């Protein structure tokens, strides 16, 4: 890590490691929400969308979705860092908008209130891990 004129720069290896740990942490956060919500509190994570059979969201679905969207967020930040000096700001706004929009499907599915609450908290858990870590590891962090 070097500090020059109030700007802290971290090495690419450290950045990758921290972001990979954030992705892992986001997945763990989502799984922990699921564990508390389904097995411990007994909320059946069965959702139904119009025209489809009911689906039971097990831990594998939670892992898959949280991993996919975490990696997508990482890819977007990396892409922005290549093309703009405002990557951190643009990514943060995009992440917050994406979080807000991610709640929309909860209104379009048929599920118990408990299942919807678990899904909403899983979304928040993923964002609560990713947003601060990805912001902190942005290519140019101002002190």
Description of the molecule:
This protein is mainly alpha-helical and 143 residues long. It has one domain (2-142). It is 69% helix and 8% strand. The chain is built from 5 helices and 5 strands, in the order ββαββααααβ. The protein has helices at 12-40, 59-83, 87-102, 104-108, 113-136, and strands spanning 2-4, 7-9, 46-47, 55-56, 141-142. Strands 1-2-5 form a 3-stranded antiparallel beta sheet, with no helix packed on it. Strands 3-4 form a two-stranded antiparallel sheet. α1 (12-40) runs antiparallel to α2, α2 (59-83) runs parallel beside α5 (113-136) and α3 runs antiparallel to α5 (113-136). The longest helix is centred in the first third of the chain and has 29 residues, at 12-40. The radius of gyration is 17 Å and the shape is elongated. The relative contact order is 0.21. Mean pLDDT is 89; it is low at 1-6.
Query: How many beta strands in the DSSP annotation?
Result: 5
The portion of residues assigned to helices is: 55-70%
Spatial strand arrangement across the major sheet:
1-2-5
Average pLDDT rating: 89
Main β-sheet description: 3 strands, antiparallel
End-to-end distance? 13 Å
- Number of individual domains: 1
Overall shape: it is elongated
- Radius of gyration (CA) equals 17 Å
Oligomer: single chain
- Unreliable residue stretches: 1-6
Q: In sequence order, what are the helices and strands, one letter per element?
A: EEHEEHHHHE
Q: How many individual helices?
A: 5
Strand content: 5-15%
Structural class: mainly alpha
What topology does this entry show?
Layout: E1 2-4, E2 7-9, H1 12-40, E3 46-47, E4 55-56, H2 59-83, H3 87-102, H4 104-108, H5 113-136, E5 141-142
Antiparallel strand pairs: 1-2, 2-5, 3-4
Helix pairs in contact: 1-2, 1-5, 2-3, 2-5, 3-5
């Amino acid at each position: 890590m070097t500090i020059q004129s109030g700007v802290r720069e971290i090495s690419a290896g450290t950045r990758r490691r921290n972001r990979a740990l954030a992705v892992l942490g986001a997945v763990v956060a989502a799984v922990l929400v699921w564990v508390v919500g389904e097995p411990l509190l007994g909320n059946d994570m069965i959702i139904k969308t119009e025209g489809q059979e009911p689906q039971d969201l097990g831990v594998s679905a939670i892992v898959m979705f949280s991993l996919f969207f975490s990696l997508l967020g990482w890819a977007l930040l990396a892409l922005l860092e290549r093309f703009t000096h405002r990557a951190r700001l643009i990514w943060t706004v995009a992440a917050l908008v994406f979080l807000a929009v991610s709640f929309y499907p909860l209104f379009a599915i048929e599920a118990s209130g408990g299942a919807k609450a678990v899904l909403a908290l899983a979304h928040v858990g993923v964002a609560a891990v990713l947003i601060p870590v990805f912001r902190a590891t942005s290519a140019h962090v101002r002190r």
